[in-house]
Design a protein that fits this description.
By secondary structure, the protein is of the alpha+beta class. It has eight helices and eight strands; from the N terminus they run βαβββαββααβααβαα. The protein has a six-stranded antiparallel barrel, surrounded by four helices. About 4% of the residues have low confidence.
Length: 279
C-alpha cells in the first residue's frame, strides 16, 4: 500500500470491459478504485463476506464460503488486515491450522447493492453497487502465546462490534476457555485489493435519447435499495424489558445512513452526460 492506496498488480487490476465482449453493456463502466479507506469501508459495512480458496492444490477446485469479518489493525504500525471468524472444525479453519506457520492464499469479496437502475433498453439496465475484492495470505491466529491470545480476543471484539456497535462490552465477556477453543480467527494479510462503485442514474446511449417515442413511453430511473434493520425483538429468555439505547441508536443510525446514500446516488446524473442530453 502506498499513500493510502493499494498498488495495482496483475491480481487486482480491473479489466473495465472484458476481452470477451463485443461491446460494453453499460456506458461508462464504473472505473476501478484502489483507495484503501473506500475498500475497507465496503468490507466493514458488509454483513456477509464471501471467501474463496482452493482446499486441495492437487485438484485446483475452488470453494467459496460465506463468512463474517472485519478490517482492522491490531498493531497500529501495521496496515489493516481482514479478520475472519469461524468455528474450529470448519474447512477453511482446519486448512489454515494445518498450514502451521505457513499461510494460504485466499480471496475475499464484499458487495453492497444500492439501487436497481432501469433504463430505456434492457442492455443499459444496471445496479448501483459497491464492491471490493481482497487478495492475500491467511493464517490462523495462534493463541498459545500471550500475544496471540491478545490479538485473538481483540479480533473477536472487532468482529462482534462489526455486527452491532458496542455489542461486545454489553455482553458476558470475556469468552470462557471452551468458547475460545471452539472459535478460530483467520487473519488475512492483504497483498492487493480493488473496488468498483456505480453510483448514478440511468445512462442510455445517445441513439435512444434521440427517440422521442421511446422517451415518451418508457419509465427510467432508479429504485433505491437499502439494508433495513427492523425493530429489535426480544428472545425467548430475554429479561431486559427496554431495548438498550446503544442498540436503538445503532439501528436508527444504520438505517438513516443506508437510506440517505441509496437515495443520493439514485438522483445523481451519469458522469460525462451533458445536461441537454438528458432533458
Amino acid at each position: 500500500m502506498e499513500d493510502g492506496e493499494y498498488v495495482k498488480t496483475k491480481a487486482n487490476t480491473v479489466n473495465r470491459h472484458g476481452k470477451d465482449y463485443a461491446k460494453p453493456l453499460i456506458i461508462p463502466t464504473p472505473p476501478a478504485k484502489y483507495d484503501a479507506d473506500l475498500i475497507h469501508g465496503i468490507v466493514n459495512s458488509t454483513s456477509v463476506l464471501h471467501v474463496s480458496f482452493v482446499p486441495d492444490p492437487s485438484t485446483l477446485e475452488p470453494v467459496i464460503l460465506p463468512m463474517i469479518g472485519q478490517m482492522g489493525s491490531f498493531d497500529p504500525d501495521s496496515p489493516p488486515a481482514c479478520y475472519l471468524h469461524g468455528y474450529v472444525s470448519s474447512r477453511l479453519m482446519r486448512l489454515g491450522a494445518a498450514a502451521g506457520d505457513d499461510s494460504i492464499p485466499v480471496c475475499v469479496c464484499a458487495t453492497k447493492l444500492d439501487g436497481l437502475v432501469l433504463a430505456l433498453t434492457p442492455n443499459a439496465h444496471s445496479y448501483n453497487y459497491r464492491s471490493a475484492v481482497l487478495h492475500g495470505r491467511a493464517r490462523v491466529l495462534d493463541d498459545r502465546s500471550d500475544e496471540g491470545k491478545r490479538e485473538k480476543l481483540w479480533a473477536m471484539e472487532l468482529v462482534t462490534n462489526g455486527v452491532v456497535a458496542q455489542r461486545w462490552e454489553n455482553t458476558r465477556v470475556p469468552p470462557d476457555n471452551a468458547e475460545l477453543q471452539s472459535t478460530r480467527i483467520l487473519k488475512v494479510e492483504v497483498e492487493s485489493a480493488s473496488a468498483k462503485v456505480r453510483d448514478f442514474g440511468p445512462n442510455d446511449e445517445r441513439k435512444d435519447l434521440k427517440r422521442e417515442e421511446v422517451l415518451d413511453s418508457v419509465w427510467t430511473g432508479v429504485v433505491p435499495v437499502q439494508e433495513i434493520l427492523g425493530e429489535p425483538v426480544g428472545g425467548a429468555y430475554n429479561r431486559v424489558e427496554q431495548v438498550p439505547e446503544y442498540l436503538k441508536q445503532y439501528v436508527e443510525g444504520r438505517n438513516a445512513e443506508t437510506r440517505e446514500y441509496a437515495v443520493k446516488v439514485a438522483s445523481t446524473q451519469a458522469p460525462g452526460r451533458k445536461k441537454k442530453e438528458v432533458e
